[in-house]
Prior knowledge:
The protein is of the alpha+beta class.
Amino acid sequence: MVETQWTKGAAEAAGFDAGLERKLLAGIESGLIRDVHAVLINRGDRLVLEHYRAAPDESWGRSLGTVAFDAGTLHDLRSVTKSVTSLLYGIALDRGLVPPPEAPLLAQFPEYADLAADPARAGQTIGHALSMTLGLAWDEYRSYADPLNSEIAMENAPDRYRFALEQAVVQTPGTHWTYSGGATALVGAIIERGTGQRIEDFAREALFTPLGITHFEWLSGADGVASPASGLRLTASDLLRIGRLVLDGGRVGDRQIVSRAWIDVSLAPKASTDDGLGYGYFWFLGEAPVLGAPKPWMAGFGNGGQRLWLMPEADIACVIFSGNYNAPDAWVSPTRLWREIVLANLTNL
Length: 349
């Protein structure tokens, strides 16, 4: 096991304005940054900022009451789980346990021969699932409290994989991005079938233990299947370890956990989202101004304001846990924190 350690130090020593934490607190106290549970900012080997608050929280809609968050507190990642699933697929691919992204999707589910016989579905690949470009009807823009939300309907279906695969074909595969937990469920199934392990067990062996992550939960649906789209619960510092792994090209110490080739492929743009961002293999991609010039970032986004932001050119990883679940403006506070607190207070690259 490799234990990731960072030096805790003053912000200015890591190339940030000395008032970084004060500005964060001012933003929270003013109400401009809302519902924050935890914020961690890392640059290189330094933990630049670590902030926790006591606040009401929930787990998959189940109230946890007021939680005094600290370094050991688990938190729902919600859809940041998808980015972790991307890493797990990459590790399985590196080991030769799963087919490559260009492989036909329905060939991985031979039990649905009727769907495989549909010419409109013939072009679907695993890569289309990873990039959410399957061309299938799917509606996750409804609240996750709404049973008509497609992911919730999938969770309630007698066969989640048939539900995800049998949705109407509305676009040619590879031509249109549609946010879909169903696509992630299919990739999770491919990982489990290829590795012969439940996804949480493969994650423990292949990713978490090498990173020194020993405390986690992976929530399951009523059928006992752990959700690769939204079920993972981690501490903020352990999610930060995963972010550093990506920034460091898949390595931790002297061990290559996931190949740099997969890191590069998964972070390369495959589609454009409905709001103009790029999308790789379960990673959002964009740009933000830093010291007067746009710099690329990649991120895992989760319901309620969960974020794992990464900016390779600045060597920054930032974890944000929030509690603004199912709110249409949940993106505002973490985006403001990332742009106006983290990036705006950088003093050098």
